Amino acid sequence: MNEPARSEASATEVGADPGRAPLPVDVGRAAVDRASFDEQGFLVLRDWIPSDLRRRLREGWEWSAAFPRTRGDRFVENVADVFSELVRHEVLLDAARPLLGEDLAIYFSRLMVKDETWSGAVPPHQESPYFHGGLRKLMVFVPLAPMNRVNGGLFVVPGSHRFGALGRVNDHEIDLAAFPGMHQHHVDMDLGDVLVFDYLLWHGSEEAIEPRSRPLFHVVYQPSSDGSHYGGRPELACGRWLTDRFLPFHHGVIERGPATAMAMAPASDAPVESLRKRLEPASMTRERGHCTVVHLDDALTSDADGRSRLILWEDDTPLPSPHALHAEIREQGMGRWSHWQDVVFFSATDNSDPRHNGRVYSITLGA
Ligand SMILES: O=C(O)CCC(=O)C(=O)O
Questions:
Q1: Could you tell me the distance, in angstroms and rounded to a whole number, from the CA of residue 125 to the centre of ligand 1?
Q2: 226 phi, psi to nearest 5 deg
Q3: Global pTM value
Q4: pLDDT tens sequence across 326-365
């Protein structure tokens, strides 16, 4: 989250993890378990980082920590070179690719710390209200020292990502008492472990019992079809760019006025692919009547916030009735369709089930 100056009161104990039962999310080097990630919203990858890189990360942190910081500031400005290497290092990409795909961009990365300058609580929140672009982002936390309840630790709320994006409400802090059954799960970690979690998963940390250093490196990855980026230039992590539209985040601009899309040269030399994406039957869900839905990864203008430029193809033919009312898609179908926020609502031209009718559905961007 963005604002460092949050309440320093202790995090609520309401809903503390009752049995501390181990979740199937605490795994060793062996596998990134997609099913558990989808269910719980996070994975703790133990001993994930090899020892030589661990040593360099420790040294990198020592270098960064030697610079004086303003009291109360938990974001570290002088970031050692090893962290720029880490964001594109196979060790993190090995964790991100099974969850997000082969073509990945870096939304941002940052180095933060709890220590004697600031060791307060970060109340339960989800990341999405603070940033922009698509919601299919992956949060990666790399502790640079042991991290536990004593030095402020970290908790996640298992399964909370399935509530979806909560929006800009309640100063973005979530009152767990209002969600019976949801509890904080404390994640203790050591240098070498990696926590990956869904962008929508609620998380936070408690006030440190002793303000010992709890440094944390934070990377946010997203599919490279999403042109949103936090820093100065779009940054590719691996694979190829799947968009040529990029939108930087400027504090306040997005909220105050219409966003300005910038056509920028991507940071890599890789050629830009024009967007043509096949909608896989496995990603389709039957909604109601003749309507089928697919969620998109891309941050594109839709009929909800302007006029969608998407073209939806059934084999080699564009579906005939874009921008249709959802009730008409459900009731009449016959190729009516709509792009609404990050979802495509559509019907096959003969009202058959697009998951099983043997036709290929794909999207491109029109003029
Ligand atoms: O630093 C912490 O304790 C929590 C960090 C966090 O929740 C965030 O960056 O979103």
A1: 9
A2: -95, 115
A3: 0.65
A4: 888 999 999 999 998 889 999 999 999 999 999 999 888 7
